[in-house]
Amino acid sequence: MHPKMPRLTDMPIRPINPTDWPAIMAIQAQCYVELAPESLGVMQSKWRASPTSCVVFEHQGSVLAYTLVHPWPRGDAPSLETEISDQSNANCWYLHDMAISPSAQGMGIGKQLFTYLVEQAKTLTVNGIGLVAVQGAQTYWQQRGFKTDITSVKLTESLNSYPDGACYLYLALS
């Protein structure tokens, strides 16, 4: 381990709180360069739909990463810049966003967030997790067990709001 890098055990994962939003929005703007950042209202709608599954990774009072996850039907994805509401009847999760501050990349934060997410989903007997891979992240997610999944007209319409090359992937948990 690099001597200046903090140990991962020193960095807690916790639910998002209202004061985290400026840091979350800054990380989003730094990480998603191929698409326009979503508005604060849209981002917060994901959090309001499922506040316990939306978390930040914090170290010494600074938010270094965030994950927005909410219930959603398998084989579908919300269009970008779409506010969502309660989807409590969905038996899957949708990983809308996992972003790590460029200053904190390479510290294993993504692995720890992903492990946390999967453990939470299994504890709650969530059937699986869907996502839309953007900016060339398809290989990253496939290495974690995600596979291409069923498509529908509705999903194709949603994917049209994402940059070219975006694809829907799914990780079965049950």
TrEMBL record:
Task: State whether keyword Acyltransferase applies.
Answer: yes
Q: What is the lineage of its organism?
A: Bacteria, Pseudomonadati, Pseudomonadota, Gammaproteobacteria, Alteromonadales
Please list the GO terms describing molecular function: acyltransferase activity, transferring groups other than amino-acyl groups
The protein's matches in CDD domains, at most eight in alphabetical order, are given as: NAT_SF
Which keywords describe this protein according to UniProt?
Acyltransferase, Transferase
Q: What is this protein called?
A: GNAT family N-acetyltransferase
Signal sequence interval, chain numbering? none
Please give one Pfam family short name. Answer: Acetyltransf_1
